[in-house]
């Protein structure tokens, strides 16, 4: 822990006297615990200090200070990394949450947004304008981190991944200058996030969308193995017939007050509710429904509903693997392990599907997984720390069995945002784009100022 005598802290305090609008906290400050709070409860890291700039120039000044004093900066927005990437020991944390503006262009086809904007705030503004964009489902996640590292979500089949909806970006470079990302850097940002510096602004695509059909379908889970088998077999048949881009039917297993349940988070992202009701009926028919609250809603309203299902913080982490097909072997492994899932709040299993425009190669992004696939998310989080080993043991067995499946059905790439450090190589994650990423890193961060953004991609190696 840095002490009050640490010369770096003394220099920081002196520097901040020239920027009175930057809120900050050192580990000894009364407001430190409030500013430091993140989703992860078991990250013991004590940063040098936390600064909360109000605009891009204050971020740039902070980066210049950090570079001049040999201090590594780390960006935090939503603060939801389960691997401690937004709160690192001894680093200078740049908290972006006060840079949260949203400016919609006159044609309502794009918006410039601050680098600290959260899903919920973005959705609220867009909903009022009858607009939408590619978005995830947990309201308190930061948009910039989510989108620039890939950005799976319920609108992926319709609008594409979050990274494919980025039109432009402003970044603070390694010299501490605010720059417009050129074509080369923008390609890197679409997949490698903040590896080249704090992203202080994004320009993103917008789409007209006023209302959606959305909600949760819960199936009879008395025999959860049979329920999951029937759902997946039926869903595969529907998928073979062809699914409309507006449909998102995300399966999940979670613990409810009534026990472990198999559910489907349903979204129909179109104002054409007549066709939406047809697909709602098809998805509901994949099992014996015990609850169905799907109905007319807005994106903002649905995010607020989902907020009630997610604890604001937790202990634990996550495991992931991506597969090409939900074949009989995969279904057998999944159903066997969801049956064993501990009955503990936080432990869950979620599946993301990538189909549509982003499931094809593109030269405009270095995101690696460019083919249709499923992302399996094994969430081993708990509210009570004493329950952690139980969920960890379950998740370890689950991921081990998944990795032993037919290698031909397993993507080398995994979703970087939920990939535990060290569990997959960046050569696998970025695939043929890995060499390009290294070249970009050396070009745009030659002194390794931002190496803590993704320590696996170090420009000085």
How helical, in percent, are the residues? 25-40%
How much strand?
A: 15-25%
Structural class of the secondary elements?
A: alpha+beta
Given as residue ranges, the uncertain stretches (5+ residues, pLDDT < 50) are none
Distance N terminus to C terminus? 27 Å
- Main sheet? 8 strands, antiparallel
Gyration radius, in Å: 22 Å
- The total count of strands amounts to 19
Describe the global form. Answer: globular
Please tell me the overall pLDDT.
95
Give me the number of helical elements.
14
Please give a handful of descriptors for the protein shown.
461 residues, alpha+beta, eight-stranded antiparallel β-sheet, five-stranded antiparallel β-sheet, 14 helices, globular
Structure write-up:
Helices cover 31% and strands 23% of the residues. With 461 residues, the protein is α+β, with helices and mostly antiparallel strands. Strands 12, 13, 14, 15, 16, 17, 18 and 19 form an eight-stranded antiparallel sheet that branches. A five-stranded antiparallel sheet has the order 5-6-10-8-9. Strand 8 and strand 9 (178-180) form a beta hairpin. Helix 4 packs antiparallel against helix 10 and helix 7 packs across helix 14 (434-444). It is globular, with a radius of gyration of 22 Å.
């Amino acid at each position: 822990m840095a002490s009050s005598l640490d010369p770096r802290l003394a220099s920081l305090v002196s520097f901040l006297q020239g920027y009175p609008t930057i809120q900050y906290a050192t580990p000894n400050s009364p407001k430190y615990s409030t500013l430091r709070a993140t989703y992860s409860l078991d990250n013991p890291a004590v940063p040098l200090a936390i600064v909360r700039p109000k605009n891009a120039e204050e971020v740039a000044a902070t980066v210049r200070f950090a570079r001049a004093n040999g201090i590594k900066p780390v960006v935090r927005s939503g603060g939801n990394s389960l691997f401690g990437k937004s709160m690192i020991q001894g680093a200078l944390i740049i908290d972006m949450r006060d840079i949260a503006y949203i400016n919609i262009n006159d044609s309502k086809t794009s918006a410039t947004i601050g680098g600290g904007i959260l899903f919920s705030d973005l959705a609220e503004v867009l909903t009022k304008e009858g607009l939408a964009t590619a978005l995830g489902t947990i309201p308190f996640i930061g948009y910039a981190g989510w989108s620039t590292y890939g950005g799976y979500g319920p609108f992926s089949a319709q609008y594409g991944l979050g990274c494919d909806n980025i039109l432009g970006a402003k970044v603070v470079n390694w010299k501490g200058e605010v720059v417009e990302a050129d074509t080369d850097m923008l390609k890197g940002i679409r997949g490698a996030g903040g590896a080249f510096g704090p992203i202080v602004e994004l320009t993103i695509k917008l789409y007209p969308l006023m209302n959606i059909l959305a909600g949760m379908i819960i199936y009879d889970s008395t025999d959860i193995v049979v329920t999951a088998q029937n759902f997946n077999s039926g869903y595969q048949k529907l998928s073979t017939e062809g699914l409309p881009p507006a449909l998102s039917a995300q399966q999940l297993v979670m613990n409810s007050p009534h026990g472990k349940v198999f559910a489907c988070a349903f979204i129909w992202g179109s104002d054409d509710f007549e066709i939406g009701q047809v697909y709602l009926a098809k998805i509901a028919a994949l099992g014996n429904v015990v609850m169905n609250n799907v109905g007319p809603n807005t994106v903002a309203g649905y995010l607020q509903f989902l907020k009630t299902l997610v604890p604001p913080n937790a202990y634990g982490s996550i495991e992931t693997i991506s597969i090409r097909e939900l074949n009989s072997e995969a279904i057998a492994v999944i159903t066997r392990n969801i049956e064993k899932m501990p009955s503990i709040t936080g432990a869950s299993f979620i599946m993301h599907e990538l189909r549509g425009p982003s499931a094809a190669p593109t030269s405009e992004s270095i995101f690696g997984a460019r083919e249709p696939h499923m992302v399996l998310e094994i969430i081993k989080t708990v509210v009570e720390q004493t329950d952690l080993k139980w969920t960890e043991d379950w998740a370890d067995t689950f991921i081990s069995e998944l990795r032993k499946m037919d290698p031909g059905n397993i993507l080398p790439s995994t979703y970087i945002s939920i990939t535990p450090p060290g569990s997959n190589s960046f050569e696998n994650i970025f695939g043929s784009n890995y060499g390009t990423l290294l070249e970009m890193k050396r070009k745009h961060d030659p002194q390794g100022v931002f190496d803590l953004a993704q320590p696996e991609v170090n420009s000085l190696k």
